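INFO  loader      accepted 1 record
INFO  loader      residues=310
INFO  predictor   begin
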Amino acid sequence: MAAVLAAVPGLAQQPTPADNSVCLVCHLDLAEEGLVAKHVPAGVGCAACHGDSPRHVDDEMGTTRPDLLYGRAQVDAFCLPCHPQHKDPDKVTAFRQEWRSRVRPNGRRILESSPCTDCHGAHVLLRPGAKQQQAWVDLFNGRDLTGWRQEGAASWTVQDGVLIGQQNAGQPGDLYTERDYADFELEVTFQMVWPGNSGIWFRKPADASGYQFDILDLREYGCTVGTIYSDGFLAQNTDESIVHLNDWNEAYLRCQGDHLQATLNGYPVADLHDTKYSTGAIGFQVHPGDQYAPMRIMVRKARLRTLVTQ
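INFO  predictor   done
INFO  writer      dumping tokens
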């Protein structure tokens, strides 16, 4: 019957989604992970890659390994039989060269030796007893300023799902989260209408400058978008080729302890240690100055994930 149905246009049977419910009892953090989400609708569950693993399933202490695990050198050979479009070595090499030393949306930096899983998904089993990774939280809801507070007289509005900051009758100001954050990952999608001077505040105390991921004009300051500032430049980005001056940009910040890291559109722009500030608000700036009157800082995504010490 299956063969007959498959031969009739429009009646081919769709695969039955895989059931990972047994595995998700202990690995709930992987329920919506990228690789899992792609494979489940195609009927490919955990057991297809890792074996039935009965001893692992029955081990409530989490000390028994699944039947099949793969080292980095083994990943590609396992994936390719089901994904022949990746068998063209020239295309794979070109992709690795394009992304080399850059950070993919899954937070992994691409190397010459990167396997499939460096580019796709974030598929990692937690160590026994480790805390689950926190979920991403939208700081900006796309509708209004819920969760934010204003300082100064700048105008902050939401139009068509985009947060827009600009001077108000020449007056500047800032917009801050109502909560403070210490160790976190932050993703912001933003665009600037030039001329302008703005930035993404992070670990910003109420009574001190905190840190800022600057949004600057290279010709005015000698450094550009992605520079890190705190009472002086801590890291300067002078490569304007990685900046989308008249389009949307992706900023990524990772702060854990005194270690501060930042990327712009996937390119590393800062990797430093500084102990001055350990917690504070996230925010956006509208800078003073008549020369910046036309500026608009526009944000369509701002989301944060608290880092958990394993």
